[in-house]
Amino acid sequence: MTVHACGAHAADLPLVAMEITRRAPGPQDVQIEIAYCGVCHSDLHTVRSEWPGTLYPCVPGHEIVGHVSAVGGEVSGFKIGDTVGVGCLVDSCRQCASCQDGLEQYCEKGIIGTYNGPTADAPGHTLGGYSQRIVVDQRFVLQVRHPQAQLAAVAPLLCAGITTYSPLRHWKVGPGMKVGIVGIGGLGHMGIKIAHAMGAEVVAFTTSESKREAARALGADAVVNSRDAAQMRAHAGSFDFILNTVAAPHVLDAYTALLKRDATLCLVGAPASPHPSPNVMGLIFGRKAIAGSLIGGLPETQEMLDFCAKHGITADIELIAASDIDAAYERMLKGDVKYRFVIDCATLGG
Ligand code: NAP
Ligand code: ZN
Ligand code: ZN
User: Fold this and answer.
1) What are phi and psi of 107, to 5 degrees?
2) Quick one: which of 41, 118, 26 has its CA closest to 328?
3) What is the pLDDT of residues 5-39, one digit of tens each?
4) What CA–CA distance (Å, rounded) separates 68 from 78?
């Protein structure tokens, strides 16, 4: 089946309308008519070949929400009309220790990403959510329980939501903890909302003075301009956990200096070029850790969606037409997003 999509034919070309094919649903498959797809900074890194290995044509998009339009004969958990989501993964080996623990994102055989992953389907690599329809194995489809009116604002939970929720849970963020969120973009604004809902004291770090009031409205108890050394020093040695979402290289010592003894700076931002090497003494004196975290597995993604539905959490979004995507990427590079672009997939193609 041919459907309309939006993607790029090369790293240095703009995204254009294109037609792609989707497989007919197999016995385990769920066919989804995509209503909305969020725009993640990883889409930009991939489509412009800022990370190695992009295959073209590239159709990005891994923050997908929509409605089920067909199911295979062996599908049990989904029926036509259900509101569902698909995140960053569409398959994994299902047998390794990580997959069996429901941590499919760390599959030891390698994950199959929603875009740019290997597949038997044409053209030999997966094509993502900037499209009208997707067909996904039921194991990688999530139930969305938010009200229909919030659907566009739910889309970003499928990547920005789970990528912040998972480390906040892993490092047991909750009441009595002081937590920093660095970078108030798509991921960071979700991190503020979720850490606040988990009961932590939340401090937002931003390079954009203009986001100060908004960060408070998102749930931050305090906001620090990370370019102001005096504001940074005022928080030295006081954090239980810091989550860093920044998409560009920067000096990490500024944040390890703010950790308490035994605390962790977790990186989720994945810049195209490396951060300067951290000061080892800054880690040794205080037994501090720098860690990383990748999205989340399927069980935890469902848990996150249900947590957000229960707490009334969605993303703050700007809805765009598919034809606006390149302009949206340029604004994202300037940090000018409040706080996630979401494509209205009704604007694709004809
Ligand atoms: P985004 O919306 O562009 O937000 C990034 C924020 O970082 C900006 O809004 C900005 O916030 C801050 N920033 C500070 N200096 C910057 C600079 N020089 N260039 C760009 N941003 C700067 O991006 P996102 O979608 O949240 O993604 C953030 C990063 O996480 C990307 O690298 C993405 O690929 C990665 N990611 C990782 C995972 C994972 O599983 N680990 C999942 C999804 C995305 P202020 O204005 O507040 O300073
Ligand atoms: Zn993403
Ligand atoms: Zn596996």
Assistant:
1) -45, 130
2) 41
3) 999 999 999 999 999 999 999 999 999 999 999 99
4) 8
- With residue 134 as reference, give the H or E element that holds it: strand 133-137
**CB within 8 Å of 237: residues ≥ 6 apart:** 257, 258, 259, 260, 286
Task: Please tell me if the CB atom of residue 185 comes closer than 6 angstroms to any atom of ligand 1.
Answer: yes
As separate numbers, helices (DSSP H) first and strands (DSSP E) second, the chain gives: 11, 17
- Over residues 293-317, the pLDDT tens digits come to 999 999 999 999 999 999 999 999 9
To test the pocket of ligand 1, the residue of 37, 42, 114, 211 to mutate (highest count of ligand atoms within 8 Å of its CB) is: 42
Q: C-alpha dihedral over 323, 326, 330, 336, to 10 degrees?
A: 30
Q: Which residue segments constitute the domains of the chain, with CATH numbers given? A: 2-159+297-348 (3.90.180.10), 161-292 (3.40.50.720)
The pLDDT score that the predictor gives to residue 335 is 86
Give the Cα separation of 19 and 28 in Å (integer). 25
Amino acid letter at 293? Answer: S
d(CA 247, CA 48): 14
Q: What is the pLDDT of residues 195-236, one digit of tens each?
A: 999 999 999 999 999 999 999 999 999 999 999 999 999 999
Percent of the chain with pLDDT over 70: 100
For the chain, give the number of residues. Answer: 350
User: How far out from the chain centre does Cα 54 lie?
Assistant: 18
Per-chain residues with Cβ under 5 A from ion ligand 2: 40, 42, 159
Query: Helix, strand or coil for residue 157?
Result: helix
Question: φ, ψ for residue 340 (rounded to 5)?
Answer: -150, 130
Expressed in angstroms and rounded, the spacing between residue 105 Cα and the centre of ligand 3 is 8
Ligand 1 center–CA 46 separation, angstroms:
14
344 Ramachandran zone, left/alpha/beta (phi>0; psi -120 to 50): beta
First vs last Cα of the chain: how many Å apart? 16
